[in-house]
Structures are given as C-alpha cells and as structure tokens.
Amino acid sequence: xxxxxxxxxxxxAAGGLAASGLGRFGTPLAMHLAGIxxxxxxxxxxxxxxxxxxxxxxxxMQGGNDSHNWIVPTDSTNYTSYAxxxxxxxxxxxxxxxxxxxxxxxxxxFGMPQELAPLLARYEAGQCAVIANVGTLVRPITKAxxxxxxxxxxxxxxxNDQQAMWQSLQPExxxxxxxxxxxxxxxxxxxxxxxxxxxxxxxxxFLSGSKVxxxxxxxxxxxxxxxxxxxxxxxSTAVPGALRSMLASTSSPNDFQAExxxxxxxxxxxxxxxxxxxxxxxxxxxxxxxxxxxxxxTLNLANEPLAKQLxxxxxxxxxxxxxxxxxxVFMITVSGFDAHAFQMRDQxxxxxxxxxxxxxxxxxxxxxxxxxxxxLFTASDFGRTLVSNGDGSDHGWGSHHFVVGGAVKGKxxxxxxxxTALGTTTDVGSGRLLPGIGVTQLANSLGTWMGLSLTExxxxxxxxxxxxxxxxxxx
Length: 475
Description:
InterPro entries: DUF1501, TAT_signal
Order of helices and strands: HHEEHEEHEHHHEEEHHEEHEHEEEEHH
Number of helices: 13
Number of strands: 15
Organism: Pelomonas cellulosilytica
Radius of gyration: 23 Å
CATH topology: Alkaline Phosphatase, subunit A
Shape: globular
Number of domains: 1
CATH class: Alpha Beta
Protein name: DUF1501 domain-containing protein
Low-confidence stretches: 1-45
Helix content: 25-40%
Mean pLDDT: 88
Oligomer: single chain
Pfam families: DUF1501 (PF07394)
C-alpha cells in the first residue's frame, strides 16, 4: 500500500526536476511546478515498493539497430513492398519463421529471421512483446510538422544526440537519465541504496540521477582494487591493510581528490559486501558450447560480452534478497549495429548474439525463481532507412523493440506496425519511420510496473503530459 511522500522524497524529486532542464521543449514549466506542488502535498502518492523485488534492464544496441529485418511482414502485399524497398537487404521468405500477429490488423502477418528463434520462442510463450515503431519524441507530431521542422527532437539523426535522447529524454549534455531519475525515487526502498542503479559497461547517462550514483560492475563482478584486497602484494601481506588504512583518511587538499577518495572508499566497502553475495547467488555459469547458427557459423555464449554482462546482472538479481534490495535499474550495452556497410554479413550474427543471450538470461532467472521480477527492454540510437544504400542502411528514426520478462503480456505486437513501403504516412524519407510510440510512453509503462505514482512519473519523464499513457504491456 502506498505511503505519504516524505519531506526527503519531495526534496529528492524536486532536485531531479531542477536538474532535468524542464520547459526546454515547450512543455509549460507551470505544469512541472504543479508536479512539485503535488509532491509537497501530504496526500501525494509515493512509489509502491512493498510488492516484492522488481528490476528493469536496458539492453542498449549501440549504433542504431536496423529493426526492419527483425520483424518482417510476411503477407503477400506487405512483403512485396518490403522487398521492393529493401532490395538486397531483404530477408528471404525461406529464412523467416512466422509469429503470432496479435494486436495488428486482420490479414497482416509477420515473421522473425531464423537467427531470432530463441527470442521468438519466448514471444510465443507469452514472455516477450514487440513494441512497434518506437522512437525519440518530444510530443506526437505529424508528417507535415516533420516537414516544417516543428516539434522535432534536437539533432535527430546524430548518434550522440539520439543516444542521449533515448537515455535521458533530453538533448545531449543532460546531467540525468530517466533510469537514474527512477533510481532517485526508488533508492529509499533499498537497504543498500548504492546498488540501486547498475551499469555493466561503463558510465551511462541513462543511470545518472540527482541523488543516486550508478554503480559499475565488471563482467565478473565488482571492479576490485586488487592491492587493497587481502593477500600478498609487493611481497608483503601487510600491504593491503596499510593501503586500506591510508585510503580511510577523510582529509584531502582539494575537492577533486576528496571526491575521488570517496569513490575509492565506496569501492572497497561494496566489494567486500558484493563479492560473497554474488558468489552465493546460485546462477548457472554460461555454457561453454558452440551453438551452430542457421548460416553454419557458431556462437559460444561463454565468450560473448553481452552474455557475460547478462550473467552478472542475473547474479545481482539473485543476490537482491540477501542485500536487502527491492528495486534496481540496470544498463548493459552491445556494439556493432551501425550498419552502413556489410549489413547482410554482420546482421545475422548480431541477431543471434542478442537472441541467444536474452534466452539464456531468462533461463537463468527462471532457475533462481526471479523470472517474474525482471523486465528487459531493448533500445538503440535510432532505427534505419528502409532503403538500401547499396551495402547497408543509413540513419533513421522509429524502430521496433522487444520487452521481455515473466510479467510481460507477451505474444503481441503493441502499437500500429507501419506499412513497410515508401511514401506512406509514416515515411519521412527513404523509409525512415515517424515514430508512433514515444520512448517516454515506453518508459511510462516500465515506471508504472516499477511502482512509481503518476506524480513521480511526471517528474522522471519531463514530457509525459504531452503523451497518452502508452502501451499496457503488463498484466
């Protein structure tokens, strides 16, 4: 049952609002100030976090994924237009596996490439959903407004800018991301708030908050300061203790050194807490077996960085009860999706890498009884052009994405899947898709599942009032 928002929660949310650069996109600042006023009210609803552990995992595919080939129309009319536009980038019909087309117009049918078979199996089992044509939007716009340059996100087809928009819902340079702002609200539910927002591949704006500090894990667990760990270093067993004693100092000649010292001290403390918890998690090791893919090539999950990141996330999830955690936000990344060239050579392997890794992750969560507690969603800089450039595709906008987890209402395509042809109402040039669903709306669905109240979601998602609620992807 939701409790009243405390003064501390109010100040945290207000700080997040101040840091978010609101009013920048034409949304009335008064609307957001009204959100602060609502939080200040003793009747404002706080995040509900007493319904068991929950976590969201953002799998970010860096470079801009060409999702036109991940979900392909298979009915005669739409496949013909798809193949005519894609030319040499079209996936042949004999390499597509049919999928349930729930949520779409009668007569339309779709399939996934053979490389995505493990993900398709999760979809048909009801543990995976497709969000059609989602992208960065400040507010819903029409094709005419696009042509007039009205209401567009900043620097629409730029990698850096659109990565920032996906992760923060603000232009590049924003100090916080919507995952971190969720963490600001949810960290009070955790006995050890330091483990609220976790990255497995370096610093990410998605996880940056006003109060929460993202914690970085390596593929094998916490990044330890080895000379300070017990053992023999520099020929002496006394070195680790002496180094820890030196690092325990609270005095520092300048702010930079003081902040650095704080991070080092946090690393020492958390490593000693986290290492045994992860070791006792019970998560299976990655299989060291070559999987033969449809094109005859092989993939070994034990050697895949994406699978390794997902394994440490699974360990963290399994350790959550031991660590007193109720809510967590994760981000993992995989590169190789900037498909200007060699697309048909490289794309099948990327598909298999993602599908096999997610499938293993879901199995690992099932093995530790947490499959209903975690929701993974894919993200990327932007979609790509439907039109081929001769060897690949160029920067686009809207893209199709997956949401996977035991709590997901799967076996359904959410949103209107656009007609895969040129010159349509959703084609803003070369088959670039005008998004039908904003990232804000996807984030709103995830935030609702995580227990954030409407008032809190309005703080986390600064342009939420510009949109409808978005897809209802949870039961």
